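Blinded run. Sample ID left blank on purpose so nobody reads anything into the name before looking at the predicted structure. Input follows.
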Amino acid sequence: MNIPADLKYTKDHEWVKLEGTTAIIGITDFAQSELGDIVYVEVETLDESLDQDEVFGTVEAVKTVSDLFLPMSGKIIELNEDLDQEPELVNSDPYGKGWMIKVEVSDPSQYDGLLDAGAYEELVSA
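Blinded prediction complete.
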């Protein structure tokens, strides 16, 4: 299982890469492997401001649909439009081409409260 050390994580299996005040967000390798083949990613919150832990979209796999929770408060400024045609990018490259949204964060200090790679690894291997 791949858990990059340069990212932060949530207990709900989202990952965050912070670049200045923009957070790039997706789901973890663990999450995509648990879900199975991803067939659809739905995000209808573009240009909306949401609080930390609010649902920003859903990911649909062959057998289930799961909510996606926002790791940091802010305004959703970009969607990964490649996922419209190729939702399987979430399976094949969850930390790269399979990213989901970009958020202009309103409280950068929330980043410090997220799990580091070691803490996330403990969570999923428990």
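Unblinding after everyone has recorded impressions. The CA atoms of residues 62 and 81 lie 20 Å apart.
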